[in-house]
TrEMBL record:
This is 4-hydroxythreonine-4-phosphate dehydrogenase 2. Keywords: Metal-binding, NAD, Oxidoreductase. It comes from Clostridium scindens (strain ATCC 35704 / DSM 5676 / VPI 13733 / 19). Belongs to the PdxA family. PdxA2 subfamily. Homodimer. One of its GO terms (molecular function) is NAD binding. It is an enzyme of class 1 (oxidoreductase). Its cofactor is a divalent metal cation. It comes from the Bacteria. Its EC number is 1.1.1.262.
Amino acid sequence: MKKSLIAVPIGDPAGVGPEIVAKAVASKEVADVAGCIIVGDKTIVENAIKITGADLRVHVINEPKEGDFREGILNLIDLGNVDMAGFEFGKVNGMCGKAAYEYIAKSIELANDGKVDAVATTPINKESLRAGGINYIGHTEIFGALTGTEDPLTMFETNGMRVFFLTRHVSLREMLDMITKERIKDYVKRCLEALKRLGVTDGTMAIAGLNPHSGEHGLFGWEEVNEITPAVEELKAEGYDVVGPIGADSVFHQAALGKYNSVLSLYHDQGHIATKTLDFERTIAITNGMPILRTSVDHGTAFDIAGKGIVSAVSMIEAILLAAKYAPNFTK
């Protein structure tokens, strides 16, 4: 079986990114399905291997085609951009923020050039990015800018349940103004196109309700009556396989049982709580709507345990496995 080539930037050197990368690359389940191209700093990676006790040998390469993908080998594109004496684990550091950005940018370059099949990202720290002079708020914005994608879509996948987000990093007050028929219709069409790109062509998308009991016909709010239901009805009339609004207290459970191929969550915490309660470590973010595939762990830099070798790599392993699962749909 041909392995998908997955670029993996090591993330913020002061966080747990290098450690979860070392543990993931050392795992047999990753080695069996993916050829990982690690983008980072050799000193940082070797230190992470030492900290975690991973049974790995570093193989420095210039191009993915030079990789040796046998078990026990970590293929590294070494950017040599970090001074170990210049930072502490668990502390915001501009050098680390700048380095983390450079690892991501190199990984995106490899994917844009068709040298890898996907990118699986690790945690970065927003304060460190800013301290390093990087003016992006996070991964999604970096990927959007470096792939020429205006508004990438975020999807979570957890044990087969897929969740999209109509709104994300805005206050609840702002979110209410963004619940419009036009926005819902646009997002549903884009989400269904993204699913098709992932190879998901069967099943129904459900639209979550906003208010308790989806508003009870206006008793608990009018967003369902005025915006959400009209959007769903018009989408159905146009031939799209969607249903809703369905109460948020039941729609995610139904999706987890396989009734729907995906759910459109209306705001950040609505979907985050559902997926992370189902399985926190296996909630993986997929950035859709770009010419390349990106998956990611959905946890932070864990500064409180960085450098101790105790971090779980389950999420990193899942992110790589999911990238390998969907990558063939992006390389046809």
